[in-house]
Amino acid sequence: MAHRRVFQTLIRHYSSHSLKNLNPILQTLPRITQFQSFPQISNLISSNSTPNLHTQFSRHFASNRSDDSESDEDYDDEDDSEDETGESLDEDDVVSGSSGKREYTAEEKESEAAAIGYKVVGPLQRSDRVFKNYEPVFAVFQIGSHQFKVSNGDCVYIEKLKFCEVHDKIILNKVLMLGSPTQTLIGRPILPEATVHAVVEEHALDAKVIIFKKKRRKNYRRTKGHRQELTKLRITDIQGIEKPVTPVVIEKTKKAVQEKVGKVAVPA
């Protein structure tokens, strides 16, 4: 250990001072520190030029350092050239700098919404009268991977729709089935002319679900919570089927009611 420490101090001094400043240090060392058995250090002392200590005493791994450095330089040059030309950047990877979210074009929004099963018409205006009285017609539509059976005026919660805001009018065009008291229409798999109109009322969060994982005798426990994002839709109209005419109810007067009551025979 003593010899090793002496050699380390010599190497540090030799790297910081010149060979002339190192000679008095070598004269003060005891006879134990002979360098005959260490050719690397004897060559260092005998040489007049300053050696590269990193290449002589550093530890090298299996890979060649010179080849790695050349490959790294080539890789950096390729990256610089690609950044200058800008040809390697794809249009799909463009994101906004502040939020980090992808920016969709109008065509992309329309195509992705159609793949999910809806189409955004526009915001609801004050002059629109979209809400109607109840009609005895039902529809089964699909949006995403879920199916719902609805009627006029119903409210449903679905997974959050990305490209619509609150108070937007949307059309659900993947209608699988329509029904009324007089007829039933079944799609194969969808009805091309049937549509369900709805209005987005709010974007909300579902109740929290706790996910707990445990492995016994392993000191492993993980607890996570999840709240699914939902969109609330209000069904306003169902189109694509003949709707029955609602009968007109005639209100009976009090006189007619009293006459009917008087004619009823009282049991003895």
Automatic annotation (TrEMBL):
Residues 59-108 are annotated as: Disordered. This is Large ribosomal subunit protein bL21m. Transmembrane segments: none annotated. NCBIfam families: L21. InterPro entries: bL21-like, bL21-like_sf, Ribosomal_bL21, Ribosomal_bL21_CS. It comes from Daucus carota subsp. sativus (Carrot). It comes from the Eukaryota. GO terms for cellular component: cytoplasm; ribonucleoprotein complex; ribosome. Keywords: Ribonucleoprotein, Ribosomal protein, RNA-binding, rRNA-binding. GO terms for biological process: translation. Residues 69-94 have a biased composition (Acidic residues). Belongs to the bacterial ribosomal protein bL21 family. One of its GO terms (molecular function) is rRNA binding.
